[in-house]
Amino acid sequence: MDLGNLYTEVILEHNKDTRNRREVEGYTHKERGHNPSCGDEITVEAKVEDGILTDLAYTGHGCSISQASASMMVDLLKGKPVEEALATVEVFLGMIKREITDVDFLEETLDEASILQGISNLPARVKCAVLAWHTLKEAVKAKA
């Protein structure tokens, strides 16, 4: 399977999978993110207990890239300490901005989300890919 097919398959798989698309019962942090250029809307809810993201999910609608990116983010960050999660968000944003290009580091740090590295070549899709990540960052910092 070539990288293009793998990319498409992972995006479609995460877009269809609804396990991360739900409300968080008893959330402690909540933020709504909106991408006016394409209409994507995401609400990220997180439950933080003792500095750990014990639960994390999103609701909303948007293109397959925004939805898949949000799902990958939840898979990657749920259960991590908030500080580690925020550092990981910065790595993801750095990857999309082409500030971090070390493929091995990105794969190790971002796991499946590293497959979105190619989005940096599609300026119209960058905001789609980073929406959930920025929204989580704002949610956690707003109440931190």
UniProtKB/TrEMBL annotation:
Gene3D superfamilies in UniProt: 3.90.1010.10
Domain NIF system FeS cluster assembly NifU N-terminal: from-to ranges: 7-128
Protein name, as recorded: SUF system NifU family Fe-S cluster assembly protein
Pfam families: NifU_N
GO molecular function, one term: iron-sulfur cluster binding
Recorded family membership: Belongs to the NifU family.
Gene Ontology process terms (BP): iron-sulfur cluster assembly
PANTHER family hit by this protein: IRON-SULFUR CLUSTER ASSEMBLY ENZYME NIFU HOMOLOG
Source organism, top-level taxon: Bacteria
